[in-house]
Amino acid sequence: MMYESVESLVACIDEPNRSGCSRMLSEHRELFATVQGSTHNHQAWPGGYLDHVVEVMNIANVLYEQFSALRPLPFSRSDLLLVVFLHDIEKPWKYELGDDGQLHHKAAMQGKAAHQQFRLEMLARYGIALTAEHENGLRYAEGELTDYTNQQRRMGPLAAMAHMCDVASARLWFDHPAAVDDPWTGARRAATSARVG
After folding, report:
1. Nearest Cα to Cα of residue 53 among 12, 2, 106, 92
2. Per-residue confidence of the chain (197 residues) as pLDDT tens digits?
3. Helix, strand, or coil (residue 126)
4. Is the CB of residue 177 less than 8 Å from the CB of residue 185?
5. Which residue ranges form the domains of the chain, and what is each CATH number?
6. How far is 37 from 108, CA to CA, in rounded Å?
7. CA distance from start to end of the chain
8. In angstroms, rounded to a whole number, what is the distance separating the alpha carbons of residues 147 and 126?
9. What is the value of pTM for the model shown?
């Protein structure tokens, strides 16, 4: 399966959310292609944020096709692509460069509650409407964390697959797409794509 661009994957999201996601990407693409994916653990290079998002979306595209061939899934490819596109949307605004030359969390963006509030504001700004399933997907795309209990399943099926995609990018392929000659046909970093055209 060919590695797809973020634009082609966003185009697979159903309306009305496709338009909002496309506008968000268009208005902030330069920022997305500048900031790191994380401070240390994955895609931690300039442009790594966009690389992480594109990688997670491509993994989602592959996993959706493979898993749905085995058993019916209770959500659409569009649902999964929407959630993984938005799952880290606060990251480009979450860090600032410190006097030591390292990225540090902004005080106003500390903690999961602050991240969630920022996400909700961005979604409202771009007219992105989420179902309860989408909200669960965004909330638990990074795992159940402190919400875990053996008394109740918190993470829904959509969140579970989004989490699988995020973990694959952040912990299995944390250094991909490779700077050069990535083995996945068509995969390349955002900074490379900008230079190539």
Report:
1. 92
2. 899 999 999 999 999 999 999 999 999 999 898 887 877 788 878 888 999 999 999 999 999 999 999 999 999 999 999 999 999 898 888 877 777 877 677 777 777 778 778 888 999 999 999 999 999 898 878 876 776 677 777 889 999 999 999 999 999 999 999 999 999 999 999 875 544 43
3. coil
4. no
5. 6-174 (1.10.3210)
6. 19
7. 22
8. 29
9. 0.89
